[in-house]
Design goal:
This protein has 339 residues and is α+β, with helices and mostly antiparallel strands. It is built from nine helices and twelve strands. The longest helix has 34 residues. It starts with a helix and ends with a helix. The structure holds copper (II) ion.
Length: 339
């Protein structure tokens, strides 16, 4: 019955989210910890159900005792004598000290064991290791030989789940990295390096979210994990490693891009653009979304973004660059060659 209720609540939530127009992440499942796809998320869900069960049982017992007292111990009509007053009872006091202590001990042991299970201080064998940098309000994924934004790709092998071992750093304020279907949540703190172990057991697109309020676009600091068959992943990674190809046909747009302040914030490998403040654009078109999942990466959305990102993601750290319509078209024609 409980499972049924949870599924119902999940589907209500899913239809609510689906009613938001033109979501940035296409047909992504609702982020939910109730549908785990890896060992750490399984552990967390098991502990959750155990805690909910024990606390629910305690709640039921307390409610039953209250109802019993209210109904059975009611003052009879016409009787206004004082009931017997009981002062001190060793058995009752022992019961309400020892039983809660036992319950708390069990909860403590179960939680402690769960925490030791999921907090790994070194990467498991064969784990894919990625450095994650939280920025207001987007995530950078640094694979060592290339970097991307918002969408974390990982390989999946047929026979076993993939371990993901993340090194978490912040470029500005405190963020928190949370992929509810893949594992726990870990804060991303300036001047501190944290680690997070996730696991994904089946191919698919998973969504998560910054889970620590970090400013006005905090709610639009989404995370997408794309778990794909190993061959597909390798092809993706090989493409990401390449520098941007130089396409003569879009030289005018490239020229505008390179002579505008774009290059102070963005990198396009293979050009002089080497800013590290903002998402690496070398393979911008390999991403499904822009602005950390706020909009689909379509030609129209891209134009709207370069025209004035403040219309799409108000308060975000990219200003309107005050280009003319023609310049925006030329720059976007160039950006669209960054596959
Ligand atoms: Cu954040």
């Amino acid at each position: 019955m409980l499972i049924g209720m949870v599924n119902f609540a999940n589907s209500m939530l899913a239809s609510l989210i689906a009613s938001i127009p033109d979501p940035g992440i296409p047909s992504a499942p609702t982020p939910t910890m109730f549908n785990p796809v890896g060992a750490p998320a399984d552990t967390i869900l098991d502990i959750t159900w155990l805690l909910v069960g024990i606390c629910g049982l305690i709640g039921l017992v307390v409610l039953a005792m209250i109802f019993f007292a209210v109904i059975r111990c009611r003052q009879p009509k016409g009787d206004d004598t004082e009931p017997a007053q009981v002062y001190g009872s060793n058995p009752i006091e022992l019961a309400w000290t020892v039983i809660p202590l036992l319950i708390v001990f069990v909860l403590f042991m179960v939680s402690a064991r769960g925490i030791f299970d999921i907090e790994k201080t070194s990467p498991p064998d064969g784990a894919i290791e990625v450095r994650v940098i939280g920025h207001r309000w987007w995530w950078e994924f640094d694979y060592g030989d290339f970097a991307t934004a918002a969408e974390l790709h990982v390989p999946i092998d047929e026979d076993k789940p993939t371990d993901i071992y993340l090194t978490l750093e912040s470029a500005d304020v405190i963020h928190s990295f949370w992929m509810p279907q893949l594992g726990g949540k870990t804060d991303v703190i300036p001047n501190r390096i944290n680690h997070l172990w996730l696991q994904v057991a089946k191919a698919g697109t998973y969504v998560g979210q910054c889970a620590e309020y970090c400013g006005n676009q905090h709610a639009n600091m989404l995370i997408t994990v794309v778990a794909q068959p190993r061959a597909e992943y390798e092809a993706w990674a090989a493409n990401q490693r390449r520098e941007a190809v130089d396409d003569r046909a879009v030289a005018a747009g490239k020229h505008i891009f390179l002579r505008t302040a774009c290059i102070n914030c963005h990198t396009v490998r293979g050009t002089v653009a080497n800013g590290t403040f903002a998402p690496d654009l070398t393979h911008l078109m390999s991403r499904d979304t822009i602005g950390s999942g706020i909009a689909r990466n379509t030609p129209n959305n891209l134009r709207a973004w370069v025209w004035d990102p403040q219309n799409i993601k108000p308060g975000c750290e990219m200003p309107s660059m005050k280009l003319t319509r023609e310049e925006v078209d030329l720059v976007c024609a160039y950006l669209e060659t960054l596959r």
